[in-house]
């Protein structure tokens, strides 16, 4: 039978990083990704299973001067329903609303979604768009040291991130957007939420005088990792947006992605979707 | 003064299912929840090839694993082939022909051990060239799948009436199109399972099975197992959904028995969800070429249908759907000339079984597309065109189906009126050209299906034993299985109606072949009709006995007495004379007191089809029209179903709650067939054996549903009712295709209408269909 | 080094202490170790909701939860939803309003309905639909299930 070597459920971050430092640890949060992987036999039996759900300090959402900090154990339900977050960063609640099912939202954590690093992870596109960074904690001189990595640099490949084996993701920090910033997230599927994204799109910026300033564009499920579409962003910035220009930008977006064929869609269709949905979402953002 | 009891009827009311309380409390024990003392877990090793000769199977290591009690392969068992044409051996010894093929099986103390044992079995193969495309099955050099059928043809069906050449000559417009239907599967929420248990002293076998046809299976099991049928008892625990999937014996059931035999312990074998996808039956996929003609006055002239069915590697019920398909082509509308041909060919793909609707979804998809196209070609609106050609009561179709009652025209007009079909259709047509990215569409489709049993087997019968005890309680023993559809509640209602009792006075026993009388099985929407009539028969006998006895004790003539509210009453005034339980107790030890009655409903007034498939196969026929309203997002191809207006000729509503539930469930199942469900088979391998990528409809996707029941009070039906179990799923794909056309001007000939397929069609870059 | 772990938790009001393999799911623990078969296996992958239970009052898919994580928690399964099963408006409504056909999805539906009603008592019909989007039902077409839940909720949408 499949199994791990041992099990631990530390109550503090100190203990957790200490354990990580000893190596061979698999981190368990909500388990909604991990259980399937274990079920499929993809796990390392020499590892200790470390449940981090009992570490309360990794849990809350706090509003600082310049940013929001969301603890890694914050569930998708909590993000969907946090009243203050829904005012300050409506995009996150909107993405959380299109995430899996209520039961999975109740257990799935934001940190788990980030560390799982699926190209189709639904919190990743909005977080990229909002210029989020993650905090990675590790043991250092008997204490906890932390580093911050911008999310846009965090994903290395499908399921692969900058988080080292001795590190724990503790929280996500998201700077408050500038006045007038507006963003939209679109997850394509036939169901409202319980659907692996075929493509997802996020576009944001400050619309002023026909220009979308400081534009942000991110795509999910159309490349090995969710990513910021730099070429598309640049094109948006260059000139005022009318319907003709938006069409041109959609073509740039379509050419910037590198989708694959799978059971959910062909690459051709994904490109078409990105093209058409870029027009739709960009028009939404620029049209009060 | 004695109490006055008003006449009360349960018929037509919303009656909760009798088994619901047990189900909502989690108490109901499905096969997965049962465990016998000493039970082992059975697992099946399936092949990873689709067409290969088996060179050797090495089970030594598996057998040596502690905790493993039996390992079997083809050489260990009698291995008589199963299925409709007996071409499917439970364990494959010589070669494998498709992904679901069973090579070996183990019984072990735990599931983990059983899995481990499977991983230790080594199979050596020699690959054979494979055949995946049914269109290539008849080519000269096509690989042969079943050696006994070197031409790869498993079945052929031909039917005709009239003279299609004459029909074509009389036509002003003739159209021909090719349609393609896909694989879907039942997805019963409770996956397949069986427990086999031999009595160590008598050698008798008890099989806990989810079959829908226990008595037929008993006989077939006896033959497959080389056993005396008298030694086989089938007990059916409550079942987590049937929909036709349990109409045939599939290899896992005899395999569990063989394992139990060898291990001398009870063996339980249940499927994982993945296994359920990979190894349970599908709906029959098909290519259908339909040619139809019409006069400029809008009268249908002829229909020619040629179809090719992918039989898969073995023959189960799916291959026989032409029986039902031809009824729709020949008899849904008046068609003077009709020619029908089907070839069913072997391939290395999965095989199809029976599935709610039994070919009628496929047939209706083509016929109703052509009804819209022909109407457009002759410039008549689709509703009027249908009304003009619709069957009506009293007619006999070219195939010999006699429609004693027929609410078809009323279904058409009701569904159209309640959905504002005509107005919306015009509005949508006008809006096709505007620059709104989201288009609205409305579409209709109708169907005909057997509703009074079906003469498929030599008998279409069902028996009932009814027993009354001292306390006025009734035990109804019926051959008819409950598969979640609510038959036990409806049968009880019918009995209560005769005996003037509340539902709580009835217990139903329906799941044990040692106790219950014979029944042919749950299929063809027949249970309410056949088992209902049978139950009524037994209840009427009991009623007669009771009233005669009451006449004796009350000195009133029996024909002036009646049964109401658990009492014997004077029929005219309702005055209670004696309570039923008291009367029954007073009858103790008297000759008249044997309050066990038996009855059967053996021969509904239907006939077997002759060799040319002609005959009145059912005692009554069900009709329906469904109108759907959709939105098509032209930017993505996503089709959203907003509303379904359904009108069904049900004969009579017996249980409002039950019938609404059946129709709503069927509509949503039809929606899945049309829009989201698609079992993807690539080179014989299933690509999406999970609910993540095989997408059932979920709650937020369901349409608003408006139901109308047309009560034609069928003369032969129990209290006037017809069977409707399959009807509601049948029209949806056809109606949605018509709505898509109304919305976009683009017609799609291939289901399901997945976003990508619709998008490609809208862009004019679909793969052209070929056959 | 131990491949099993001892956990203590409260199940349907009673304390439980159990030694379990580290990778066992809560669903397997309930069904195979504790013989509580009301919670169903429908997919084992979080896609069908047949295994829905409440952990610390919140609905989860038992098939996705590691049993080791139950330590110190409170679990409620369909068997323990109420003390008196005949007197529970939610379950009565499921039976009387036609929310049950084959019944296989029903325990999960009932548990998810409980979660919705406890947390969103004023949920309207479309919120209820979203609330049960993770529960598949092959029989009913959901309509009567949605009506059932709405009829027990606080919003006046019982028509
Ligand atoms: C049926 C179903 C539907 C789903 N639908 C969606 C969907 O719509 N959109 C979507 O994006 N996802 C979906 N998912 C995936 C999953 O639910 C999410 O990715 C979820 O956010 C994972 O969180 P978790 O807490 O359950 O992660 P876990 O399974 O506990 O962990 C996931 C991975 O991250 C690692 N990890 C977790 N936390 C940390 C940490 N703090 N530091 C370092 N490593 C860590 C774990 O070791 C593991 O490798 C679905 C899953 C299922 C089963
Ligand atoms: S069994 Fe857990 S969601 Fe299906
Ligand atoms: S009632 Fe059968 S699955 Fe829901």
Keywords:
heterotrimer; A: 288 residues; alpha+beta; Uridine Diphospho-n-acetylenolpyruvylglucosamine Reductase, domain 3; Enolase-like, domain 1; four-stranded antiparallel beta sheet; globular; C: 159 residues; Ubiquitin-like (UB roll); DNA polymerase, domain 1; 2 domains; five-stranded mixed beta sheet; binds flavin-adenine dinucleotide; binds FE2/S2 (inorganic) cluster
Sum up the overall morphology of chain A in one term.
globular
Count the strands of chain C? 5
**Which percent band covers the strand fraction of chain A?**
25-35%
Average pLDDT rating of chain C: 94
In sequence order, what are the helices and strands of chain A, one letter per element? EHEHEEEHHHHHHEEHEEEEEEEHHH
Largest sheet of chain C: 5 strands, mixed
Main β-sheet description of chain A: 5 strands, antiparallel
Reading off the top of the CATH hierarchy, the class of the largest domain in chain C is best stated as: Alpha Beta
CATH class of the largest domain in chain A: Alpha Beta
The run of helices and strands of chain C is: EEHEEEHHHH
Q: What value does the Rg of chain A take, in angstroms?
A: 19 Å
Number of domains of chain A: 2
Number of domains of chain C: 2
Walk me through this protein's architecture.
Chain A is an alpha+beta fold and 288 residues long. Chain A has 2 domains: 1-52 and 61-175, Uridine Diphospho-n-acetylenolpyruvylglucosamine Reductase, domain 3, CATH 3.30.465.10; 184-286, 2-Layer Sandwich (Enolase-like, domain 1). Chain A contains 12 helices and 14 strands. Chain A has helices spanning 13-21, 34-39, 76-81, 83-88, 90-97, 102-107, 110-116, 124-129, 151-154, 230-238, 243-256, 267-286; strands at 6-8, 25-28, 48-51, 61-63, 67-71, 133-140, 143-150, 155-157, 160-161, 168-175, 181-187, 200-208, 211-220, 227-228. Chain A has a 5-stranded antiparallel sheet. Chain A has a 4-stranded antiparallel sheet with strand order 11-12-13-14. In chain A, α2 links the parallel β2 (25-28) and β3 (48-51). In chain A, α10 (230-238) runs antiparallel to α11 (243-256) and α11 runs antiparallel to α12. The longest helix of chain A has 20 residues, at 267-286. The relative contact order of chain A is 0.12. Chain B is an alpha+beta fold and 771 residues long. Chain B has 3 domains: 20-27 and 461-602, Aldehyde oxidase/xanthine dehydrogenase, molybdopterin binding domain (Aldehyde Oxidoreductase, domain 4), CATH 3.30.365; 34-128 and 191-239 and 246-279, Aldehyde oxidase/xanthine dehydrogenase, a/b hammerhead (Aldehyde Oxidoreductase, domain 3, Alpha-Beta Complex), CATH 3.90.1170; 286-454 and 609-763, Aldehyde Oxidoreductase, domain 4 (2-Layer Sandwich), CATH 3.30.365.10. Chain B has 19 helices and 28 strands. In chain B, α9 runs parallel beside α18 (732-744) and α16 crosses α18 (732-744). Chain B is globular and about 80 Å long. The mean pLDDT of chain B is 94. Chain C has 159 residues and is α+β, with helices and mostly antiparallel strands. Chain C is globular, with a radius of gyration of 16 Å. At the B-C interface, α1 and α16 of B face α2, α3, α4 and α5 of C. One FE2/S2 (inorganic) cluster sits between chains C (100-106, 137-140) and B (189, 241, 484).
């Amino acid at each position: 039978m499949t199994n791990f070597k041992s099990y631990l459920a530390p109550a503090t971050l100190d203990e957790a990083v200490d354990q990580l430092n000893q190596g061979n640890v698999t981190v368990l949060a909500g388990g909604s990704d991990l259980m399937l992987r274990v079920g499929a036999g993809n796990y390392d039996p020499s590892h200790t299973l470390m449940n981090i759900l009992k570490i309360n300090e990794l849990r809350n959402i706090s509003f600082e001067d310049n940013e929001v900090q969301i603890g890694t154990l914050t569930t998708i339900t909590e993000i969907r329903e946090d009243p203050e977050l829904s005012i300050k960063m409506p995009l996150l609640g909107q993405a959380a609303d299109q995430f899996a099912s209520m039961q999975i939202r109740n257990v799935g954590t934001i940190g788990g979604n980030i560390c799982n690093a699926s190209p189709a992870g639904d919190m990743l596109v909005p977080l990229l768009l909002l210029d989020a960074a993650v905090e990675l904690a590790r043991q250092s001189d008997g204490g906890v040291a932390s580093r911050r990595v911008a999310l846009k640099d965090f994903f290395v490949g499908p399921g692969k991130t900058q988080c080292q084996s001795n590190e724990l993701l503790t929280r996500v920090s998201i700077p408050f957007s500038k006045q007038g910033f507006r963003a939209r997230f679109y997850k394509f599927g036939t169901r409202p939420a319980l659907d692996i994204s075929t493509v997802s799109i996020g576009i944001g910026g400050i619309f002023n005088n026909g220009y979308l300033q400081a534009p942000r564009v991110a795509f999910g499920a159309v490349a090995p990792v969710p990513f910021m579409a730099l070429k598309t962003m640049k094109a948006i910035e260059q000139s005022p947006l009318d319907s003709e220009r938006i069409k041109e930008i959609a073509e740039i977006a379509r050419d910037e992605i590198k989708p694959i064929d799978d059971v959910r869609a062909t690459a051709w269709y994904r490109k078409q979707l990105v093209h058409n949905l870029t027009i739709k979402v960009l028009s939404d953002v620029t049209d009060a | 003064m004695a109490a006055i009891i008003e006449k009360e009827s349960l018929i037509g009311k919303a009656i909760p299912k009798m088994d619901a309380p047990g189900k909502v409390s989690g108490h109901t024990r499905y096969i997965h929840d049962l465990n016998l003392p000493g039970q082992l877990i059975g697992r099946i090793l399936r092949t990873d090839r689709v067409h290969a000769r088996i060179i050797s199977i090495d089970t030594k290591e598996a057998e040596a694993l502690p905790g493993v009690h039996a390992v079997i392969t083809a050489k260990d068992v009698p291995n008589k082939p199963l299925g409709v044409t007996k071409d499917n051996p439970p364990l494959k010894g010589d070669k494998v022909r498709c992904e679901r093929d069973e090579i070996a099986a183990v019984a072990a103390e735990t599931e983990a051990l059983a899995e481990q044992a499977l991983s230790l079995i080594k199979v050596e193969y020699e690959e054979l060239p494979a055949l995946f495309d049914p269109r290539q099955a008849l080519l000269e050099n096509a690989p042969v799948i079943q050696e006994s059928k070197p031409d790869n043809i498993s079945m052929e069906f031909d039917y005709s009436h009239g003279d299609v050449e004459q029909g074509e000559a009389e036509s002003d417009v003739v159209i021909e199109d090719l349609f393609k239907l896909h694989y879907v599967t039942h997805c019963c929420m409770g996956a397949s399972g069986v427990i086999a248990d031999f009595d160590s002293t008598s050698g008798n076998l008890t099989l806990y099975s989810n079959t829908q046809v226990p008595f037929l299976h008993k006989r077939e099991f006896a033959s497959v197992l080389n056993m005396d049928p008298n030694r086989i008892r089938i007990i059916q625990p409550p079942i987590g959904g049937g929909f036709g999937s349990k109409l045939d014996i599939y290899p896992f059931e005899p395999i569990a028995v063989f394992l139990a035999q060898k291990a001398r312990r009870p063996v339980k074998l249940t499927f994982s969800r993945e296994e359920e996808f990979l190894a349970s039956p599908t709906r029959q996929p098909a290519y259908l070429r339909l040619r139809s003609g019409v006069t400029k006055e809008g009268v249908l002239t002829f229909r020619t249908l040629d179809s090719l069915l992918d039989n898969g590697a073995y023959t189960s019920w799916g291959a026989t759907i032409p029986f039902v398909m031809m009824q729709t082509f020949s008899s849904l509308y008046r068609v003077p000339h009709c020619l029908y041909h089907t070839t069913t060919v072997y391939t290395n793909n999965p095989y199809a079984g029976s599935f709610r609707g039994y070919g009628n979804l496929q047939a209706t998809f083509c016929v109703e597309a052509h009804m819209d196209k022909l109407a457009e070609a002759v410039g008549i609106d689709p509703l009027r065109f249908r009304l003009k050609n619709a069957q009506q009561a009293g007619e006999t179709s070219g195939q010999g189906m006699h429609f004693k009652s027929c609410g078809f025209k009323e279904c058409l007009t009701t569904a159209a009126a309640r959905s504002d079909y005509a107005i919306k259709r015009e509005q949508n047509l006008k809006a096709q050209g505007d620059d709104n990215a989201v288009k609205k569409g409305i579409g209709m489709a109708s169907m005909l299906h057997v509703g009074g049993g079906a003469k498929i087997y030599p008998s279409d019968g069902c028996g009932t034993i009814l027993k009354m005890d001292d306390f006025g309680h009734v035990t109804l023993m019926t051959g008819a299985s409950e598969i979640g559809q609510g038959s036990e509640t409806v049968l009880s209602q019918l009995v209560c109606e005769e005996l003037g009792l509340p539902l709580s006075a009835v217990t139903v026993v329906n799941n044990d072949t040692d106790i219950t009388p014979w029944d042919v099985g749950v299929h063809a929407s027949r249970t309410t009709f056949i088992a209902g009539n049978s139950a009524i028969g037994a209840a009427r006998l009991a009623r007669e006995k009771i009233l005669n006895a009451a006449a004796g004790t009350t000195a009133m003539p029996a024909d002036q007495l009646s049964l109401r509210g658990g009492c014997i009453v004077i029929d005219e005034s309702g005055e209670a004379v004696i309570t039923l339980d008291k009367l029954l107790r007073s009858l103790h030890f008297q000759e008249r007191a044997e309050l066990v009655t038996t009855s059967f409903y053996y021969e509904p007034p239907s006939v077997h089809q002759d060799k040319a498939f002609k005959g009145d196969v059912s005692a009554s026929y069900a009709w329906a029209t469904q109108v759907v309203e959709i939105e098509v997002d032209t930017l993505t191809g996503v089709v959203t179903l907003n509303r379904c207006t359904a009108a069904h000729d049900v004969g009579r509503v017996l249980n409002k709650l039950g019938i609404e539930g059946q129709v709503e469930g069927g509509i949503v199942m039809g929606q899945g067939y049309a829009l989201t469900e698609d079992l993807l088979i690539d080179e014989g391998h299933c690509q999406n054996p999970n609910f993540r990528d095989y997408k059932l409809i979920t709650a937020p996707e369901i349409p608003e549903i408006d139901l109308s029941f047309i009560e034609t009070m069928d003369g032969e039906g129990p209290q006037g009712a017809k069977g409707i179990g399959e009807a509601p799923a049948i029209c949806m794909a056809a109606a949605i295709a018509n709505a898509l056309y109304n919305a976009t001007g683009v017609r799609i000939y291939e289901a399901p209408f997945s976003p990508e397929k619709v998008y490609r069609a809208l862009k004019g870059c679909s793969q052209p269909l070929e056959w | 080094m131990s491949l099993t772990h001892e956990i203590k938790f409260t199940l349907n009001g009673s304390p439980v202490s159990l030694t379990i393999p580290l990778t066992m799911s809560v669903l397997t623990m309930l069904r195979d170790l504790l013989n509580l078969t009301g919670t169903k296996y429908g997919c084992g992958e979080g896609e069908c909701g047949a295994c829905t239970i409440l952990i610390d009052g919140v609905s989860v898919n038992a098939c996705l939860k590691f049993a080791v994580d139950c330590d110190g928690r409170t679990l409620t399964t369909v068997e323990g939803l109420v003390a008196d099963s005949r007197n529970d408006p939610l379950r009565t409504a499921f039976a009387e309003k036609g929310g049950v056909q084959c019944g296989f999805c029903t325990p999960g539906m009932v548990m998810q309905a409980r979660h919705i009603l406890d947390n969103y008592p004023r949920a309207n019909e479309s919120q209820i639909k979203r609330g049960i989007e993770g529960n598949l039902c092959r029989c009913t077409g959901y309509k009567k299930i949605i009506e059932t839940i709405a009829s027990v909720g606080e919003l006046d949408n019982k028509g």
